[in-house]
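Protocol step 4 of 5: obtain the predicted structure for the target chain.
Materials: sequence only (see below). No template structures provided, no constraints applied. The aim of this step is simply to have a reference model before the mutagenesis design in step 5. Sequence pasted as it appears in the construct record:
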Amino acid sequence: MSAEPDGPEDRLRRFATIWSRAVFPVTSTSSTRPEFEAQLLPLARRLSGVLRARSFEAADAREVGAALVDSHCTDPEALSRTLDCVDAYLVLYCGEDGDPEDLRARSARLQHAMAAGFAGALRARTLAEQEAIAQAALKAQGVVAEALHASEARFRAVFEGAAIGIGIADLDGNVLQVNDALMRMFGIADPTLGGRRATEWTHPDDAPQTWRLYDELVRGEREHYHVEKAFYRPDGTVLWTNLTVSLLRDADGTPQYQLALMEDTTERRLLNLRLRYEATHDALTGLPNRSFFFERLEKALNAGRGQRFGLCYLDLDGFKTVNDSLGHAAGDRLLVEVADRLQACATAPGEMVARLGGDEFVALTTGPDTRHEVDELAGRIMNALLAPVSVDGRELTVRGSIGIVEGPAGERSPAEVLRSADITMYRAKSAGGNRFELADPEADARVITRHGLTTALPAALERGEFFIEYQPLVHLGDGSVRGAEALVRWLHPQHGVLGPDRFIPLAEHTGLIVPLGRWVLEQSVRQARLWRERYGESGAAGPLRINVNLSPCQLTHPGLVQDTVEILERTGVTPDALCLEVTESALIGADDDLLKPLRRLAEMGVDIALDDFGTGYSNLANLRRLPVSVLKLDRSFTQSMQQFPADPVDLKIVEGIVALAHSLDLAVTVEGVETGAQAEQLRILGCDTAQGWYYARPGPPERLHELALVDATG
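Step 4 output (structure tokens):
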């Protein structure tokens, strides 16, 4: 057994050898096979480059196809063998270290481009031959007037020896003479074609302008025309040709004859039809693909007034699990079975099914009334998925989520319709899957806005669109301002000022919460330093503390402690001026690794507040192991205290929490204080500090300084 090539160049040369051995027997060249292989080697190198390039360049592949024609590989069998060779060996020998599925897909596109380049070059070469023959014929016709016998010999040589079909008819369309090549095209032996007239050769696929151009030519109004035309052979089969018809005039310029040059393009047309099918249909399932579907959808949306459309966007639930557990081959068989079932669901006029890619399918219905039709189509699809699919002896349950969009034609673009269907499908999937949902414009708008905010977040931080408002923390005992909570806002160019509930979840999802949280922490600590400086100048007692919220993502970030220390050192603020607020839900079941950064910060002197306490259903015994110094009581416990008398159950709960917190040496802060009666009741219950609209709404830092000065001056 011979060893495999051990380098890229060796594998490339092996591929060129296989290629040359396959194609050389059907090549009209005077070169030896090794010489022919040397001609193919640079073409193989170009194909390898196209296969492994970052972006696919169809032009390079087309040039390789055209180069085959230049190398005298003009036999259609040469193209067929080339495509077979590329399909079987290019990825094997030139696709090292690449994704096999991506390489196979790129190889298929490369073959299509090669075939297109080959066909184009062969057509150009044939047209050049036609032009040369036409020029020779015209020249011969002119020479006839001067020297009939000499021109007769030349024209006869061209006429008889040409590889393309040539026919001569009078201006009435009577066929006078044809050459052997044309008779072979039609499969006949009679050079007069049975006395037929040119005007009898009509075909249903004739272009509308074909016979108009013919009439203009025989009237002497044009010298020639070129069309693609089909003819029926005597056996009933169809002959497709590139037809060029020229007008022959006598020496005085009077029209005399018409000369037809025909190139047989039947095989090329079949190849183009096959390539067209492959370009518009999914290779795995045979369904129309994304590009074909978009053509149909665009046509449906551009239909006249009174026409409507209905679209079902299907995504299989849990398909990734099938691929991961049973392998991609099993997943492919599942997709083929699903495609067959979907195809059986869309058989009515105006209905079609397509595969967009992966496990995503679409079904389209069109007509004057699709409101009920699209619902019925979705129901048929869901019913078709009920029966399990047998794959490798396993019965797989198939579930799917469908988003439905229905409406009148002419109002939306294909991209807008598909986006709405995609959003609606994910809404059905979020609701548990195995169901279909109807599109909701308001829900679409929310998702689109959410996506727009998500994509705009990184640039917003760079452009400085975020700012911080501060809400004061007031001591319930003496009413003094003890600090403030930093609340970040986004000044969006289109949507105005957005609260944290609009963008913090998006920042957490994208990971931007870490740099955003670091920016908020640094800005807030700098503001705390300014407050302390001004507070001291005012003669007021006690420092102002800043409270900054930490998200769960920030808690798990390895740089939390280091970032906090660097910010405190850089701003010259002592740790006791900072309180980090962590929601109770983020610490439920927290292990020692998660608590370790909080413990280090607490040991430094940074206060840790347990925010939204009472909403996380945590075990109160966990308070003993958490490094917190402040409990921030959720407003839901104190809302009833805005009215008199307060709910006695809430009073007992708050009283118990305060007693528990104080027994553990924890301070208690209350959110959402909106009335004086509420503040007084909380003071009586022993709460330490509070914040809410009763004292001040969140605002600029100057407002807090003003409140602190008022407090200091009595």
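Step 4 remarks: The first helix runs from residue 8 to 23. The first strand starts at residue 165 and ends at 170.
Proceed to step 5.
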